[in-house]
C-alpha cells in the first residue's frame, strides 16, 4: 500500500528555507515506489512559493496563507497543520530541525500517536527498512534509529546534512488552499525585533566565521564580519564572547546555543571548550586560529593557524578577495 509523506515547508521573510529542499531530498530517499510526496506551507503572503515547491515533483501541496500567520506562533501554526493532518492523513511527517520544527514535531507526533526521531543527519534505506542516523552525547557518538510497526513517523532533519535534490519539475502538482483556523491563543506576536542583521541564516550558512573571547571587544568582530562577507558566510560566536557582551546571544554556537554544520567553520580566538564543540564539531572542515598552540580547538581542527587573529584574519580576507 502506498504511503503519504508530508513535508512541512518552512518559509522565512517570504522565501523557502534551504532545509525545506533538504527535507524533500530525505523524503525521496525514504519513499518507496508508489508513495506520494506532499507538502504544506504556512505563513502570510506565501502562496507564490507553491511554484517553487512544485518544481520538485511533489504530488500535492497544501497552502494556508493568512495575515494572522505572518509570525510564527506555536498554537496558530499547530492548529493550521492540524487541518492538513486531518485532510492528508499522512504516514510520515518530515520537518527541518529548526526552532519551528523542534517546536511542532512533538505536538504532531502526539496528535498522530506517532514515533519521533529528531536531529537526523543521514538517512539510509536497506532491505530491512529505513534507518536514521543522529548524533548523541553532544556529538561524541552517533546512533541509528528505525521505526517499528505501522504507526506514523515524525522526523526532523538537521540543516546542511541531507543533500537537496535538483528541481526537475517532474510530476503534476495539485494545490489545495485551506482556511487558517482561528484557535483561542494564549499569546499573540505583534512584532519580531531582530538584534542580529546577518543576511544569511547562521544554521544554514555554508561558511561560518566565529569569534571567542580572543576578539577582546565588540569591535573585534569587525574583521570577522569582513571575512564572512567575502566568503558569503555568516558570523557566529562562542558563549564566552556572548557573556562578555561582545555580541548578541543570537550568534551563540554551542550546547546552549545553535548547532551549525557548515562546509567551512573558522574559529577565531576560540579555546575549544566542550560546550562549544557540541555546536560545531559536525562541520565539514574546521579551521582554528589561536595564539595558544595548546588550545583544545586544535584537537578537532582540520587546519590550525597559531597566531594573532587580528593579524591572520585580515591576511586571509585579503587573499580571498584576490581569489574570489
From TrEMBL:
Cofactor: FAD
A GO MF term: flavin adenine dinucleotide binding
Cofactor note: Binds 1 FAD per dimer.
Organism expressing this protein natively: Paenibacillus albiflavus
Protein name stated in the entry: Electron transfer flavoprotein subunit alpha/FixB family protein
Keyword Electron transport on entry: yes
Record-linked InterPro entries: DHS-like_NAD/FAD-binding_dom (IPR029035), ETF_a/b_N (IPR014730), ETF_a/FixB (IPR001308), ETF_alpha_N (IPR033947), ETF_asu_C (IPR014731), ETF_asu_C_CS (IPR018206), Rossmann-like_a/b/a_fold (IPR014729)
Record keywords: Electron transport, FAD, Flavoprotein, Transport
UniProt-annotated binding residues for FAD: 213, 238-239, 252-256, 269-276, 290
Family: Belongs to the ETF alpha-subunit/FixB family.
Domain Electron transfer flavoprotein alpha/beta-subunit N-terminal: 5-193
Gene Ontology biological-process entries: fatty acid beta-oxidation using acyl-CoA dehydrogenase
One family name in Pfam for this protein: ETF
Amino acid at each position: 500500500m502506498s504511503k503519504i509523506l508530508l513535508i512541512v515547508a518552512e518559509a522565512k521573510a517570504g522565501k523557502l528555507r534551504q532545509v525545506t529542499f533538504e527535507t524533500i531530498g530525505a523524503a525521496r530517499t525514504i519513499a518507496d515506489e508508489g508513495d506520494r510526496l506532499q507538502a504544506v506551507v504556512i505563513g502570510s503572503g506565501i502562496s507564490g512559493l507553491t511554484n517553487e515547491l512544485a518544481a520538485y515533483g511533489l504530488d500535492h501541496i497544501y497552502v494556508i496563507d493568512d495575515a494572522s500567520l505572518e509570525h510564527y506562533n506555536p498554537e496558530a501554526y499547530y492548529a493550521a497543520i492540524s487541518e492538513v493532518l486531518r485532510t492528508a492523513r499522512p504516514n510520515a511527517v518530515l520537518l527541518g530541525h529548526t526552532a519551528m520544527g523542534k517546536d511542532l514535531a512533538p505536538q504532531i507526533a502526539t496528535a498522530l500517536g506517532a514515533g519521533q526521531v529528531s536531529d537526523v543527519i543521514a538517512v539510509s534505506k536497506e532491505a530491512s527498512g529505513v534507518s536514521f542516523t543522529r548524533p548523541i552525547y553532544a556529538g561524541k557518538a552517533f546512533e541509528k534509529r528505525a521505526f517499528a510497526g505501522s504507526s506514523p513517523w515524525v522526523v526532523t532533519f538537521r540543516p546542511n546534512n541531507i543533500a537537496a535534490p535538483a528541481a526537475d519539475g517532474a510530476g503534476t502538482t495539485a494545490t489545495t488552499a485551506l482556511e487558517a483556523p482561528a484557535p483561542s491563543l494564549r499569546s499573540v506576536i505583534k512584532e519580531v525585533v531582530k538584534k542580529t542583521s546577518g543576511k544569511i541564516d547562521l544554521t544554514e550558512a555554508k561558511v561560518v566565521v566565529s569569534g571567542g573571547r580572543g576578539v577582546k571587544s565588540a569591535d573585534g568582530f569587525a574583521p570577522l564580519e569582513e571575512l564572512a562577507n567575502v566568503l558569503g558566510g555568516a558570523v557566529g560566536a562562542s558563549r564566552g564572547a556572548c557573556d562578555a557582551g561582545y555580541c548578541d546571544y543570537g550568534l551563540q554556537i554551542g550546547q546552549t546555543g545553535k548547532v551549525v554544520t557548515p562546509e567551512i567553520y573558522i574559529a577565531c580566538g576560540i579555546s575549544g571548550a566542550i560546550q562549544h564543540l557540541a555546536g560545531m564539531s559536525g562541520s565539514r572542515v574546521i579551521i582554528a586560529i589561536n595564539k595558544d598552540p595548546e588550545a583544545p580547538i586544535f584537537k578537532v581542527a582540520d587546519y590550525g593557524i597559531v597566531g594573532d587573529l587580528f593579524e591572520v584574519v585580515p591576511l586571509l580576507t585579503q587573499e580571498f578577495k584576490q581569489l574570489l
